[in-house]
Amino acid sequence: MTIRRLYRYPTESAKHEQIKILFEEYFINMQKLMDRPSQLYAMRARGALLKLKKVAHQRGLELLSLYSPFQNQGKEPITKPQKQNHDKHRNRIITDSPSEQQQGQSEETKTTDTQ
After folding, report:
1. How much is the average pLDDT of 31-58?
2. How far is CA 42 from CA 19, 26, 54, 68, 100, in A?
3. Cα separations (Å) of 67 from 10, 15, 61, 74?
4. Is the pLDDT of residue 109 over 60?
5. Would you place residue 14 in the very low, low, confident or very high pLDDT band (cuts 50, 70, 90)?
6. Which long-range contacts (CB under 8 A, 24 or more apart) does 57-65 make?
7. From residue 105, how far is each of 51, 100, 102, 110 by CA, in Å?
8. 39 phi/psi in degrees, rounded to 5
9. Is residue 49 helix, strand or coil?
10. φ and ψ at 53, to 5 degrees?
């Protein structure tokens, strides 16, 4: 995964707070629906989810504007990606050649057979 450049600092916007409230509203109505099944609580829970879907999309666009180079043309990034040294073989254990490994395994099986 690449590290993206951020062009603006993230903030808790009004959409963020609205999502918190809508989640809470959904869970409250869903709990009431489980305790006392009724059409009213089902409709309220569904309504909260529909509102949540709309607000979540808008919040997603806000978050996209933090790192999208197309929406921030001409601006300097506030963070710069650091060069990472990825060495996928760094943790590999160096073993003997395959023929020596097979000989070592055959000697181990011989000793376990004799016991």
Report:
1. 96
2. 19, 10, 19, 38, 68
3. 10, 18, 11, 13
4. no
5. very high
6. 58/15, 59/13, 59/15, 59/16, 59/19, 62/13, 62/15, 63/10, 65/7, 65/8
7. 64, 9, 5, 9
8. -65, -35
9. helix
10. -60, -45
The dihedral sign for the CA sequence 32, 37, 39, 40: negative
Closest CA to 51 of 63, 59, 40, 41: 59
Please give the pLDDT value at position 88: 59
pLDDT of residue 63: 86
Share above pLDDT 90 across residues of the chain, in percent, rounded to a whole number:
41
Distance CA 60, CA 82 (A): 25
**H or E segment at 6?**
none
Could you tell me which residues come within 8 angstroms of residue 96 by beta carbon, excluding any fewer than 6 positions away? 104
Q: What tokens were used for 29?
A: 């109505």
With cut-offs at 50, 70 and 90, classify the pLDDT of residue 92: low
**Residue found by looking up tokens 């959904």 in the block:** 26
